[in-house]
Specification:
This protein has nine helices and seven strands, in the order αααβαβαβαβαβααββ. By secondary structure, it is of the alpha/beta class. It has a seven-stranded mixed beta sheet with strand order 3-2-1-4-5-7-6, sandwiched between helices. The protein is globular.
Length: about 210
Amino acid sequence: MNHAQAMDNMYRYQRYIYDFTRKYFLLGRDTLLARMEIAPHQHVLELGCGTAHNLVRLAKQYPQTHFYGIDASAQMLISAEKKVKTWGNPIILKQGLAENFNFHTTFELNQPFDVILFSYALSMIPPWREAFEAALANLKVGGHIYIVDFFDQAELPVFFQKGLTRWLHYFQVHYRPELLAYLHELENNQRGTLTITPLYKRYTFIAKFKKIK
């Protein structure tokens, strides 16, 4: 079973309650959306957009900006399309894998994206490194990649860390300590500048990566 099929199986029914339930533990999303640097007429992509919760929120904040989303699950995109239609303004959604897209062939754009967002997505993408490299390849020089995802919970009780890890594993979600090491390596190699902000006693983190070459 490939990743897209696995996501469809997981979210075939969960998509109906996804937004209601996830708001209680996908912490930091609203903080990130408020901090993102977005300008009118830019092109902004979310990889792993799910039900388009974040995209609709951003579209309401920035009505003159162009928004796009990719998700592996066709089932989740059914809910996303309904939400986008309710919002009214066009948000272009495509089914596909985060590690395998192109700004021109996937979205018929003439230039790479200005901003790309991963919201609790890299912890669910098995080839997460390839997904981030694809984001970099489809980002303008000077553009930003934003990440919000689970951190190491180092300042929280051990029993909480263990319980959360077991529970997330059930949903094929995995905290990836190697991700931050990889981002720092990219910065050391002068491919971009990196800012990491822990939140909620390291329950989650926000990363901002600016591409410089």
